[in-house]
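Key result, reporting period 2: structure in, sequence out.
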């Protein structure tokens, strides 16, 4: 009898066509045994020679389904109790309640696109899918991932679909959302009172509406979207009014690689991202200006390719090359999910309203990524990414981390897996806060999760912290508070499996400091349990608190006052723009004892510089000033001057501000001044990090915090730190912004609990 091997493959291997792939491969290699899904992943029993087993494993690794991901393969040789005569797929064993992974939603695959055009029962069937593609997370209500636990339970499979579903050699074997023209979900369109059910007519109407400059509301994978012709300024303007989003850039969907090549600068890595099955929005640099209505004043634009069959059809029918594609809700509100809510809100406001009858269980927005230092970095983690777990060294089981506030994401701990929620939004909006609570309930149900302990930000005013306190009280659970920038730093440690002490540079807009001040540019020595704040950007006044984060001119005034002790150096342009009255009022506030809030925020420093240079006086959306400043600087990459500083290894904002003011006076081009600011800041940061690396004997540097969404700053800093021989780590799969904070919170709490540290 041949040897028997028991092989367990862990990772993203369920719901992505893994078992049929194994089945077909085993038959091709004439192997005998079984394959099944179990709670750890895919389990294979194989009776073969060692050489056959090795070849089998090698081909599994090399040829696995594109969406799948193998985290680990365990092999053990056992004694065969009986002989297998063939290779077969065995029914899943779901008796145990352990977690199995749920795949993120996957963009329609090429084979399904082909079926859409030629397979008789799926000709022009818009919800065509298979084991390699289609909805997943958005439709799952509970685990295990089986049709009765998805919103597809409403649809009874026809006999053809059922045959495919049962045939191990079919691409739709156990494809839970399998459907066709006879049995699956359908679109319905509404124009006022008129109801249209015919799919082709609906697509025609969408095309015509877009071409006429109208706004189409269309239900998608994880919510509703608004569409408008990106080349029609009037249409985009109309969309801005509707959405009450007047300046923040829109993303566009396009369908032609040629169009992208003509209009955007795209690196190989960016192409890879654009065309990946995750289909995120990728931030690209424009080759030529598309429309100021889309991304006023910026040179970057979010671009994505179609991910549903209907998207392709809309491009084909309309002949359009770029469509503005945004969630169909007022700016700052959560994505709409239910047809009833959507109809009530979108039917009258849009020129055409199109829904389908496949219910969305988990709302999930489009994801956003930016390639930085030739690595894709997730900025908004949602469709195509959620709910892929992040593996953690410590056991995080039962931990629930509430995240921050402006970019709300929470995280559940299951075993060693950190399950981040999809991006939810800014909790200060009531509807978003409700959506956050709702998502918390849904994901807890979905993963059969019951919290044992809670973790939140140490900011007492964050709504997420207040909710954590309320739940801790109700359920009598322990609650741990985590400092914001420590959480940022540890999120990077999680991504790279680091456990040793590291140096961290956390740069962001705001995080509650241990001294009650508003921190945001912190150099720390830390591990997963504790941290020591080594140094920070010198404090300046934060005049008006939250108001200063919005009205960035306040920070310019604050910095100049801190440096010169007077406002004599304020550039006349700034005074004219803001108005003498307001500046006078602010100067009174600056000397008032009532004004006692201080900040070391890097975000506020960028605000100050942006308004000093006349780039932006008021942030109309988060980080607007910083984005504009970065983009402007990027046009002056050729300039390499640095405002010299005598304070080597220490902060010296005065030399930077003096340098900038002198340049402004000399009428040096604003872009050049913006570039010099970036280079000078980087020079100081590098010297500071080097100094502390020497003093602490630590060589690993963690970069985290929303400021690192600035590609120019990140790339300059990473390169120079590496040139100095430091090992630099920055997040890529976990957002560097507050969307990644929950991961750090959970990892810190778990490390402390596991070390039985007397922390409480
Ligand atoms: Zn497919
Ligand atoms: Zn069918
Ligand atoms: Fe932050």
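The corresponding designed sequence is given below.
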């Amino acid at each position: 009898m041949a040897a028997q091997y028991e092989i367990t493959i862990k990772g993203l291997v369920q719901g992505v066509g893994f078992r049929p792939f194994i089945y077909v491969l085993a038959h091709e290699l004439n192997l005998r045994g079984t394959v099944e899904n179990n709670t750890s992943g895919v389990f294979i029993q194989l009776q073969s020679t060692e050489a056959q087993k090795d070849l089998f494993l090698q081909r599994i690794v090399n040829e696995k389904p594109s969406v799948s991901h193998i985290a680990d393969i365990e092999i053990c040789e056992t004694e065969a109790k009986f002989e297998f005569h063939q290779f077969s797929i065995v029914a899943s064993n779901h008796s145990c309640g352990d977690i199995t992974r749920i795949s993120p939603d996957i963009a329609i695959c090429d084979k399904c696109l082909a079926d859409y055009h030629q397979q008789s029962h799926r000709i022009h069937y818009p919800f065509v899918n298979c084991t390699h593609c289609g909805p997943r997370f958005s439709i799952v209500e509970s685990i295990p991932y089986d049709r009765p636990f998805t919103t597809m339970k409403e649809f009874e499979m026809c006999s053809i679909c059922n045959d495919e579903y049962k045939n191990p050699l079919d691409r739709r074997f156990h494809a839970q959302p399998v459907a066709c023209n006879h049995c699956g979900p359908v679109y319905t369109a509404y124009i006022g009172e008129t109801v249209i059910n015919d799919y082709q007519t609906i697509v025609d109407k969408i095309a015509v509406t877009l071409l006429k400059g109208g706004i189409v509301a269309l239900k998608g994978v994880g919510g509703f979207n608004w569409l408008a012709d990106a080349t029609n300024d009037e249409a985009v303007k109309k969309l801005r009014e509707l959405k009450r989003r007047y300046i923040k850039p829109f993303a566009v969907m396009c369908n032609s690689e040629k169009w992208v090549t003509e209009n955007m600068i795209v690196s190989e890595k960016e192409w890879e991202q654009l065309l990946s099955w995750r289909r995120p929005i990728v931030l690209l640099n424009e080759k030529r200006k598309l429309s100021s209505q889309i991304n006023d004043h910026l040179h970057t634009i979010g671009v994505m390719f179609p991910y549903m069959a209907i998207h392709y059809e809309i491009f084909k029918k309309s002949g359009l090359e770029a469509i503005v594609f945004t969630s169909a809700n007022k700016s700052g509100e959560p994505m709409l999910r239910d047809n009833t809510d959507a109809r009530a809100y979108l039917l009258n406001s849009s020129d055409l309203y199109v829904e389908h009858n496949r219910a969305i269980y988990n709302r999930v927005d489009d994801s956003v990524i930016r390639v930085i230092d030739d690595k894709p970095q997730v900025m908004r983690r949602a469709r195509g990414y959620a709910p892929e777990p992040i593996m953690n060294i410590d056991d995080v089981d039962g931990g629930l981390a509430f995240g921050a506030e402006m970019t709300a994401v929470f995280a559940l701990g299951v075993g060693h897996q950190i399950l981040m929620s999809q991006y939810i939004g800014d909790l200060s909006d009531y509807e978003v806060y409700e959506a956050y609570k709702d998502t918390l309930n849904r994901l807890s149900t979905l993963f059969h999760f019951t919290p044992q302990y809670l973790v939140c930000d140490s900011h007492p005013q964050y709504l997420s912290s207040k909710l954590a306190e309320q739940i801790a009280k109700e359920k009598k659970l322990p609650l741990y508070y985590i400092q914001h920038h420590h959480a940022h730093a540890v999120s990077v440690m999680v991504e790279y499996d680091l456990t040793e002490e590291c140096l961290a540079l956390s740069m962001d807009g705001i995080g509650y400091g241990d001294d009650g001040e508003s921190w945001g540019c912190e150099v720390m020595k830390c591990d997963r349990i504790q941290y020591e704040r080594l140094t920070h950007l010198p404090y300046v006044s934060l005049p008006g608190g939250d108001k200063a984060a919005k009205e960035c001119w306040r920070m310019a005034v604050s910095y100049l006052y801190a440096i010169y002790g007077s406002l004599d150096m304020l550039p006349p342009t700034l005074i004219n723009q803001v108005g003498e009255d307001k500046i006078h009022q602010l100067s009174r506030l600056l000397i008032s004892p009532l004004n006692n809030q201080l900040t070391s925020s890097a975000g506020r420093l960028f605000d100050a510089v942006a308004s000093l240079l006349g780039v932006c006086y008021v942030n109309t959306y988060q980080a607007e000033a910083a984005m504009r400043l970065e983009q402007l600087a990027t046009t002056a990459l050729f300039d390499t001057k640095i405002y010299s500083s005598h304070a080597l290894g220490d902060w010296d904002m005065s030399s930077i501000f003096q340098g900038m003011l002198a340049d402004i006076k000399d009428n040096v081009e604003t872009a050049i001044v913006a570039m010099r600011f970036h280079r000078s800041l980087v020079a100081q940061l590098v010297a500071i990090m080097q100094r502390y690396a020497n003093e602490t004997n630590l060589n690993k540097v963690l970069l985290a915090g929303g400021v690192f969404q600035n590609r120019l700053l990140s790339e300059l800093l990473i390169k120079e730190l590496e040139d100095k021989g430091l090992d630099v780590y920055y997040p890529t799969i976990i957002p560097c912004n507050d969307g990644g904070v929950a991961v750090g919170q959970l990892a810190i709490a778990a490390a402390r609990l596991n070390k039985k540290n007397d922390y409480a």
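Residues 26 and 56 are 7 Å apart (CA to CA). The chain has 24 helices and 30 strands. This case is discussed further under Risks and Mitigation.
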